[in-house]
From TrEMBL:
NCBIfam families: AcCoA-C-Actrans. One of its GO terms (molecular function) is acyltransferase activity, transferring groups other than amino-acyl groups. Coiled coil: none annotated. InterPro entries: Thiolase, Thiolase-like, Thiolase_C, Thiolase_N. Residues 5-257 form the Thiolase N-terminal domain. The keyword Transferase applies. This is Acetyl-CoA acyltransferase. The active site is at 91 (acyl-thioester intermediate), 344 (proton acceptor), 374 (proton acceptor). Residues 265-387 form the Thiolase C-terminal domain. It comes from Actinocrispum wychmicini.
């Protein structure tokens, strides 16, 4: 069986996902195409050699509908002969795109693949594709007669179950902003990011964030009916210790090492092991815990073998609960900041985290990196890579 390697990875800066955000005027197809084109230009690969473009997007409606990956590939200048497909595993969509691309290379079905993702949350608001629709159906409703909950309530339930305080959540968020700001100041994102004329750096990073500032924010998801149903909730989750809504895209070039050698390309990392799990849809965001255990088992590694972790900060309670359960060293987790600061453009985040993880391993000299992402519905992806 072939191996699968990451030749290069690139992302756009992440913009604020609101009408006043720097990337709000950029159509999602063009935003996505910018990352794909930057990847082609950086590697110098003949775009006609790309066997497929596999992309993630969550809001597959309106301007992000109609197999948006196909139009982004064409907008990026790839030939009409290059196919493309858009996948949806919610927040893990582009991480799943990386898995599918790597698995295709390993099986021999592909030689050269682009795995990518996009989300323009300023133009396609979160939840647009499901708004006004019963997407669960009566049989699923029967399985959960008390009803499922929004992700913010799941984040509150996690904080309550793992005994996390408001101060802990705010401290983690503050650290995320500090680390992201330092990474920009030190030039650690220079290789990762292909600026647009509208934006050169991540727009949501706030270097001035402090625990005291965050402490003044009100709980974001409190409602009387939720408080009645879940009296154990302490109401600690705020806009400040959650990821914002954002616009962004990212792309990863994946080949076999043999193909890379033939094309004169130098791989940066090997895609080592993959896992995907299902977990409790009520708590929804806890799948990162079993996913981490599963991917380590598949890799034949222990937690101590991992030199860097990228755990998506959809909510800080998710990462803190994951750390409690796994025992991961805080100093190895999201060392260049996470989604609380950088942002979480849903369908792009998996590829964005992978771009960051490859660079962090190179910057620290680490060998193995682990990425994991919680996803709506009680799902999670996990990936282990090895720096080359």
């Amino acid at each position: 069986m072939n191996d699968a390697v990451i030749v290069d990875a690139v992302r756009t800066p992440v913009g604020k996902g609101k009408a006043t955000g720097a990337l709000a005027g950029v159509h999602p197809v063009d935003l996505h195409a910018h990352a794909i084109r930057a990847l082609i230009d950086r590697t110098g690969i003949d775009p006609a050699l790309v066997d497929d473009v596999i992309s993630g997007a969550v809001g597959q409606i309106g301007e992000q509908s109609g197999n948006t990956a196909r139009w982004a590939a064409l907008a990026a200048g790839l030939p009409e002969s290059v196919p493309a497909v858009t996948v949806d595993r919610q927040c893990g969509s582009s991480q799943q795109a990386v898995h599918f691309a790597a698995q295709g290379v390993m099986s021999g079905a592909y030689d050269v693949v682009i795995a990518s993702g996009v989300e323009s949350m300023s133009r396609i608001p979160i939840g647009s594709q499901a708004a006004g629709h019963d997407f669960l159906g009566p049989k699923v409703a029967d399985l959960y007669p008390e009803g499922l909950v929004p992700q913010g309530i799941s984040a509150e339930l996690i904080a309550a179950k793992w005994g996390l305080t408001r101060t802990q959540l705010d401290e983690f968020a503050t650290t995320s902003h500090q680390r992201a700001a330092a990474a920009w100041a030190d030039g650690r994102f220079a290789r990762d990011v292909a600026p647009l004329k509208e934006l050169a750096q991540d727009e949501s990073v706030r270097p001035s964030t402090t625990v005291d500032v965050l402490a003044g924010l009100k709980p974001a998801f409190y409602a009387d009916h939720w408080a009645t149903r879940f009296p154990e909730i302490g109401w600690h989750v705020t806009a400040g210790n959650s990821s914002p809504v954002n616009d962004g895209a990212a792309a990863v070039l994946i080949t076999s090492s043999e193909t890379a050698r033939k094309l004169g390309l130098k791989p940066r990392a090997r895609l080592h092991s993959f896992a995907v799990v299902g977990d409790d849809p009520l708590f929804m965001l806890t799948g990162v815990i079993p996913a981490t255990a599963k991917v380590l088992g598949r890799a034949g590694l222990t937690l101590g073998d991992i030199d860097a972790f990228e755990v998506n900060e959809a909510f800080t309670s998710v990462v803190l609960a994951w750390q409690q359960e796994t025992g991961a060293e805080e100093a190895k987790v999201n060392v260049n900041g996470g989604a609380t600061a950088i942002g979480h453009p849903l369908g792009a985040s998996g590829a964005r985290l992978m771009t960051t993880l490859v660079s962090v391993l190179e910057q620290t000299g680490g060998r193995y990196g682990l990425q994991t992402m919680c996803e709506a519905g009680g799902l999670a992806n996990a990936t282990v890579i090895e720096r080359l």
